[in-house]
Amino acid sequence: MITAVELGLIYAIMALGVYLTFRILDFPDLTVDGSFTTGAAVASISIVNGINPFIATIFAFFIGGLAGVITGLLHTKGKIDGLLAGILTMIALYSINLRIMGKANTPLLGETTVLSFMRENQLLGTWTSVGLMFAGCLVAVAIIVWFLRTDVGLAMRATGDNEEMIRSFGVSTDNQKILGLALSNGLVGFSGAIIAQFQGFADIGMGIGVILIGLASVIVGQAIFGQKFIWIAALAVVFGSVVYRLVIQLALNAGLEVNDMKLISAVLVVVALILPQWKGFGKFANRIRIRGKAVQPNGVKEEVETNA
């Protein structure tokens, strides 16, 4: 069960990237399935060739971001529909990822990774590693919340809310979309790099269906914990990713097979979309949110309500 929580926290970085495009930009980005593997491939091949694993993971962030830029350029400058632009980039990345790795699978056994210190000290699979990974997610959430409160972040949120209005103010919505896609896929590539180092290999098929995991994390988390404020919405994505992994683990423990994971993911998303319409679930979710408010310190300033 602890391993499921660890995986949920690592995938939460990817889900935060999906949150930026799906909720903030209102952009249907399918690049994720390819950029996740790209991040894993870049980090793995860099580590195998002797590059410091931390630098290799940063490489994965930037190369993932580059994939997002390509999708953004196809959509904004090439006037290609956003959904199709993402699909085209995702398909192209499959061949690029094979080129990067030179084969379908790159093992990392015996290599030093960013998780080696935890593995050597037998911290993986313990609550210590969960605490460290959760702290990492909190840092990512804090950076995203800070960014979305800057002038550039506010322009990006406005682009997702009402593109025509923000364009009338002289803001380049094309640049906002390209930047948002770059940040989103950078986070996805970063998550892919960590997952590869966590499981000990990068595989050409590891990104298939990742967009569904990201959407499930966003929808499930925000259905339970709400999305009224930016920081709540971002934290809900992290908790949603953990909840998703726990549900998957429970399903596997109940006798379902690994091959059923995609089916479980699809059912989970459907349930998350339907549940908020049920009055009983609405009361349950409101109780959680009220309890969350009750523990807030006095004097906390309310944030501007977002489109998230």
Sequence-ordered SSE layout with sheet pairings:
Blueprint: H1 2-24, H2 32-48, H3 53-76, H4 82-101, E1 105-107, H5 116-120, H6 127-149, H7 151-161, H8 163-168, H9 173-199, E2 201-203, H10 210-225, H11 230-253, H12 261-274, H13 279-294
Antiparallel strand pairs: 1-2
Helix pairs in contact: 1-6, 1-9, 1-10, 1-11, 2-3, 2-4, 2-9, 3-4, 3-9, 6-7, 6-11, 7-9, 10-11, 10-12, 11-12
Ranges where pLDDT stays below 50 over 5 or more residues in a row are 294-308
| Total count of helical runs of at least 4 residues | 13
Strand order of the largest sheet: 1-2
Give the assembly state of these chains.
Answer: single chain
**Terminal Cα separation, in Å?**
30 Å
Largest sheet: 2 strands, antiparallel
Shape: globular
SSE pattern, N- to C-terminal: HHHHEHHHHHEHHHH
Structure in a nutshell:
With 308 residues, the chain is mainly alpha-helical. Helices cover 73% and strands 2% of the residues. The chain contains 13 helices and two strands; from the N terminus they run ααααβαααααβαααα.
Please describe what this structure looks like.
It is found in: Cell membrane. The chain crosses the membrane at residues 7-25, 54-75, 82-102, 122-148, 178-198, 204-225, 232-251, 263-281. Its main location: membrane. Pfam families: BPD_transp_2. This protein is mainly alpha-helical. Helices cover 73% and strands 2% of the residues. It has helices at residues 2-24, 32-48, 53-76, 82-101, 116-120, 127-149, 151-161, 163-168, 173-199, 210-225, 230-253, 261-274, 279-294, and strands at 105-107, 201-203. Strands 1-2 form a two-stranded antiparallel sheet. The chain is globular.
